[in-house]
Amino acid sequence: MIHIIDDDPNVRDGFMMLLKSAGYVCDAFESAEKFLENYNAESFDLLILDIHLPGMSGCSLLEYLRTKKMRLPVIIITGYDEKSTRTAAKDYGAIAYLRKPVDSTALLDLIKFNYAKA
After folding, report:
1. Could you give the CA distance from residue 26 to residue 85 in angstroms, rounded to a whole number?
2. Computed from CA positions of residues 116, 35, 97, 88, in that sequence, does the dihedral angle turn out positive or negative?
3. What is the reported pLDDT for 117?
4. Domain 2-110, CATH class in plain words
5. DSSP string, 19-81
6. pLDDT confidence of residue 34
7. Domain extents for the chain?
8. For the ranges 2-11, 36-45, 72-81, 82-91, the one whose mean pLDDT is highest
9. 97 has which bridge partners?
10. pTM for the whole thing?
11. Residue 114: pLDDT above 80?
């Protein structure tokens, strides 16, 4: 299962359509808090995470997951490319850092390279 967290409904819907058309099972959340309410380690393969979220930020979510010893493969997406964001993504163990608008082929190649289809 691939989980998508982004506060923009158009981004969530676009990723959902792209991933489903490529044969992946996925779901989407508008916030880190909604994701945590529904998190189930048994059904988890990958997280696509926007860094800039209302409420708990993407970096705060990564920090929280790390303190709970939840090692999750994460692809960071952001519309605001900042050195501090790139550093935080690396420090928290993200497998990739992609700028919006995300190239769909690059995203699918990254997923295919790292994970098998559900």
Report:
1. 25
2. negative
3. 44
4. alpha beta
5. HHHTT--EEEESSHHHHHHH--GGG-SEEEEES--SSS-HHHHHHHHHHTT----EEEEESS-
6. 97
7. 2-110
8. 2-11
9. 76
10. 0.91
11. no
